[in-house]
Specification:
2 copies of one chain form a homodimer.
Chain A: H1 2-11, E1 13-15, E2 19-21, E3 29-30, H2 32-45, E4 53-57, H3 60-69, E5 77-80, E6 92-99, E7 104-111, E8 120-128, H4 132-144, E9 147-157, H5 162-168, E10 173-183, E11 188-191
Parallel strand pairs in A: 4-5, 4-8, 8-9, 9-10
Antiparallel strand pairs in A: 1-2, 6-7, 10-11
Chain lengths: 192, 192
Amino acid sequence: MKELEDRIRRDGTVKPGDVLKVDAFLNHQCDVTLFNDMGAEWARIFAGKKIDKILTIEASGIGIACIAAQHFGNVPVVFAKKSQSINLDGDQYSAKVYSYTKQKEFPVIVSKRFLTEGEHVLLIDDFLANGKAMHGLIDICNEAGVVIEGIGIAIEKGFQRGGKELREAGYNVASLAIVKAMDGDKGTIEFA
Amino acid sequence: MKELEDRIRRDGTVKPGDVLKVDAFLNHQCDVTLFNDMGAEWARIFAGKKIDKILTIEASGIGIACIAAQHFGNVPVVFAKKSQSINLDGDQYSAKVYSYTKQKEFPVIVSKRFLTEGEHVLLIDDFLANGKAMHGLIDICNEAGVVIEGIGIAIEKGFQRGGKELREAGYNVASLAIVKAMDGDKGTIEFA
């Protein structure tokens, strides 16, 4: 998606350690006009698929998923939680995920009430790198018996293995920008 | 806002300990049609105010704020973070907040790049109870020198002191549903 690639080039920052900072428009400050265009693009890509629900993960996925849902007939958005809360009770699906950016393991939790066997689900997240968080969501989907219709990603780090593994496993992964290479010292970025 | 009150009555659950669970439509599963109507209502209430930016706090505020932003000319949404990340670097505004639902203290962090002195900001959050999280956002706004044009809340627990204190301090607080009383044993709820 050219608009997203252009925006990453303009407002993104490449840092040493394969860090791509896009907090100016994606995951700290949010450009809702861009989110709308991303939602429209996923709706185009997944046109004809039955999507009953969008599943994402807190925190950065939520805004993107909520605006995307407007392009899928206002389906409900469920966001997986990363910590226990007294607001989370009853039966839960849970998976463990290691976060590179937070540098710790965290749980991914979804209440069983919000995933129903046989539902068709679109998974959405802001980043796909090694795929750990997405595999956590997929584990939960499998446990719940829902059908994963596709995976919508804003930015895929194509030089890490997450996207490749998911596609090889048969998932329909739609990454709107795939970073092929980036150089933290020079601050350059190249898209697939 | 009648639609939100009706929805709380229908799909919310009152639990002992003054816990109001609205995870079926507000803060775990998200009803984006309802969010849209909430955004339209805040736009009506804050009509004529200059709003340059919406500031909220992860995680539950994000979806509500992003959809609300569409009713304020697609202004940027900034969400305060509750933990450090390697994606957060450089100068930050930071405040400390105690969360009753998480039962621990957490930081509220906003990068200095995303609040500019003189900007007019609308604060949005899903809940207002004792007001701790909102005071954290306000502290950050004051430090940044932005103008707080108003505070949009989905559900205010009117029997706790947060809303009262904020109004007495002169803030324009627009809570779309104000719970006057609730009974965790009977499961009943009464709106102001």
